[in-house]
Amino acid sequence: MTSVNVRFSKAAILAQLQRLAPCVLLVVSLLLIAKGGYIQGKAAVAQWLMHEAWQQAMQTKKPVAPWHWADTEVIGVLHFKSQRQFILSGESGRNLAFGPSLLSQSAPLDEKGNSVISGHNDTHFAKLAKIETGDIIKLETINQLKSYRVSEVLVVRQDQTGVLAQTQVDALTLITCYPFNSTTLQSKYRLVVRALLIEA
Question: How much helix, strand and coil, in percent to the nearest 5, is found in the chain?
Fold first, then answer.
């Protein structure tokens, strides 16, 4: 009699677990969706705050922090065909969560050389998945508006840092993780978009 009860108990537990499995999967799925929505929402709110900071910077002609506790400033705007992205100074992980960021070792946006800007491929630099050679990218700074033409689009390993080197010409280099829509968090590859200044 005891062995029958034990078997019955195991069968009952398995049946209960099978009934609960869809509910558990639903809860986990909703949590993952909410997390993704939070990241996208945070990026959208940050863009609005950076827009306000940029308007102030254009009036004062000085970079402005997008929120009072920020350790970064809005230093420019990238204009693609149908999109614009505000650029932050400094390439920390926290800054990249809010927008594209200028690498500290690259040329300042208003100076000649290679200005390197990095961004996440699932938010601010998702646009780079469709960029092509010949496309025009405009770079707005507090002092000027410059136009660049995409000269090359290439994929490199993350340890190939030659794309960060300074150049004799005025260049804009945009970098994001590759491939797009990857299921892994740490990709070994980067998509690099190199654009050269169009002389006026």
Answer: 35, 30, 35
Write the DSSP assignment of 78-118 as a string of letters.
Answer: EE-SS-EEEEEES--HHHHHHS-EE-TTS--TTSSSEEEEE
Domain spans, the chain = 32-197
The amino acid at 7: R
Name the residue among 117, 126, 130, 124 with its Cα closest to residue 175.
117
Interval 3-26: pLDDT, tens: 545 555 777 777 776 777 777 777
d(CA 174, CA 188): 17
CA 55 to chain centre: 22
Fold of 32-197: Sortase; Chain: A; (2.40.260)
